[in-house]
Amino acid sequence: MTFQVGDKVIYPNHGLGIVTRIEDKTILGTTCGFYHLRIVANETTVLVPVSNVDGVGLRRAISDDEVDGLFGLLGDGKIDNHQNWKGRFKDNSDKMRSGSIYDVADVLKSLTFLAKSKSLSFREKRMLDRAKFLIISEVSEVMREAAPAVEARVDRALEHCFTTKSRAATTVAAGSLPRKVAAKAAPAPRAAAPAVTTRRAARV
């Protein structure tokens, strides 16, 4: 994947950047190209080797059309639920490094949901804040909307996600309960009346 000056790109865990320059540099006798990225969040400059774009996960910012898909994912009610802290943290860390905004959305959903039931560790709380920031900043730039408005939309999508998950769980639980059918006792059959034989007195 190649970029041009002025392209908006996403550098994993750093957020939105803009390609300001492309130049060749000679380092230890080897000449290679570098992208100069201005990271929008803190106005720092990062140099990324052209040959290592795929390795670091550099990608273009999502399009306007992809924003709707992103919010659909945020509100779909599907949440990864890892009980083991180490496994959960490793999986989420890998997703944050992937560069995919959809992976970051998964992290945001799972950690926000987890935070509703327990206190997050410092590292997970920081990861949660980072995931939310990365999504808000990218969507804000793509849609040209103020960050607070985008954050409110993200929060609404997350609430819809949790409501959908809760309803699905309730439905599953209800379906697993045995049905109690009130059996009506059938009326006992009535005993047949004994036959009565009447003898008429014979006339003499």
Shape: elongated
Give the biggest beta sheet.
5 strands, antiparallel
Assign the CATH class of the largest domain. Mainly Alpha
CATH architecture tag of the largest domain: Up-down Bundle
Low-confidence stretches: 181-186, 192-204
Q: Spell out the CATH superfamily of the largest domain.
A: CarD-like, C-terminal domain
**Lateral strand order in the biggest sheet:** 4-3-2-1-5
What's the number of domains? 2
What is the number of helical segments per DSSP (H or I, 4+ residues)?
A: 6
- Structural class, please? alpha+beta
Following the backbone from N to C, one meets helices and strands in this order, namely EEEEHEHHHHH
| Beta-strand proportion | 15-25%
Give me the CATH fold name of the largest domain: Methane Monooxygenase Hydroxylase, Chain G, domain 1
Number of strands: 5
Overall residue-averaged pLDDT value:
84
Question: What's the end-to-end separation, in Å?
Answer: 129 Å
Describe the structure.
The protein has 204 residues and is α+β, with helices and mostly antiparallel strands. The protein has two domains: 8-60, Thrombin, subunit H (Beta Barrel), CATH 2.40.10; 64-170, Up-down Bundle (Methane Monooxygenase Hydroxylase, Chain G, domain 1), CATH 1.20.58. 47% of the residues lie in helices and 17% in strands. It has six helices and five strands. The protein has helices at residues 53-56, 64-74, 85-98, 101-115, 122-143, 147-176, and strands at residues 8-11, 15-27, 30-39, 44-49, 59-60. Strands 4-3-2-1-5 form a five-stranded antiparallel sheet. Helix 3 runs antiparallel to helix 4 (101-115), helix 4 (101-115) crosses helix 5 (122-143) and helix 5 crosses helix 6 (147-176). The protein is elongated, with a radius of gyration of 33 Å.
